Amino acid sequence: MFVPLKDLVLDAQAKKYAVGAFNFSNLETLLAIVRAANKLSAPVIIQTSQSAIKYAGLEYIVAMAKAAAKTSGVPLALHLDHGTDLAVVMACIQAGYSSVMIDGSHLPLAENIAFTRKVVEAAHPLGVSVEAELGRLGGVEDEISVASHEVMYTDPEEACQFIEAVEVDALAVAIGTAHGQYHGEPKLDFQRLAEIAATISTPLVLHGASGIKDESIKKAVAQGVTKVNIDTDLRVAFRQAVKDFVDNSQDYDPRKILSPAIQGMQEVVAAKINLFGSVGKAVLK
Fold first, then answer.
1. Is there a domain that residue 14 lies in?
2. Which terminal CB of the chain, N or C, has fewer other CB atoms within 10 Å?
3. Could you give the CA distance from residue 47 to residue 45 in angstroms, rounded to a whole number?
4. What is the spatial distance between Cα 88 and Cα 223, in angstroms, rounded to a whole number?
5. Do the domain assignments include residue 168?
6. Is 186 a member of any domain?
7. Domain that holds residue 113
């Protein structure tokens, strides 16, 4: 059914590409993601936030994802993005997610380790991968809101301590990206990323990648990032496509209104897959 995130990021790490992780909360976004992945023969991570689960319902989310996995010809991982509520994380594990992110980045290091360990102990025996986060990204996305004064870059030494204390399958790092839309050009700390990659062997994750210049994404992947999260870019494409349609048509058929949105998002996903270097990587070795 779903592929563990661990399998995807280890393959990406070995072959020096990144897997796209795209958020969805409805059928149209999921169709766009999977159609692009199928067309380009690329592995992909379909992920949901806690608020997406509240919006659509866990049973509906899992049912849609299972249909996508059943009909898709590429490896799919179903992943929980930014799990801060242990009850939601455990519910996703029981519901069949192949990967969960436990976000204890707001906690002191020791507490983050203890918080993460609880999830690892529940997930790993069931073959479910675990992503953790060290450092704090700024910005707003769904239930995640971090003010500029709360931003904290990932410390390479703390990353080493964290990984020695708890075995996770992927680690999200803070190097200057942010959630939501950017106001001004973000400056990524590539030196810090290089130091982290040299310190630990755990596959690295880049959150807040919507709106980052292509050259910066390519550089981050070259330096060890194996999973890149995209959400805002899809939302923007969805909104623009729907606006363009309703501004120029009196049609009230939801299918006709939303079909351009699927196409617009599919084009974004395809562009990102090309950017991440995952085209043709659907066969894991």
1. yes
2. C
3. 6
4. 33
5. yes
6. yes
7. 5-276
Catalytic residues: 81
| DSSP code per residue over 142-189 | TTEEE-GGG-BPPPHHHHHHHHHHS--SEEEE-SS-EES--SS-----
End-to-end CA separation in angstroms for the chain = 18
Q: What is the CATH number of the domain that holds 264?
A: 3.20.20.70
Domain membership of residue 285 (yes or no) is no
How many independent structural domains does the chain possess? 1
- Give the helix ranges, DSSP H, for 223-253: 232-247
Q: Which amino acid, 236?
A: V
Catalogue the E-assigned strands of the chain: 19-23, 44-48, 76-83, 99-102, 129-134, 138-141, 144-146, 170-173, 178-179, 204-206, 225-230
Biggest alpha carbon–alpha carbon distance for the chain: 60
Q: Which of 101, 97, 184, 185 is nearest to 143 (CA)?
A: 101
Grouping H, G, I as helix, E, B as strand and the rest as coil, residue 96 is coil
- Per-block average pLDDT, block size 10, for the chain (285 residues)? 96 97 98 98 98 97 97 95 95 98 92 96 98 74 46 87 97 80 68 95 92 92 96 96 96 97 98 98 81
CA 91 to chain CA centroid, nearest Å? 19
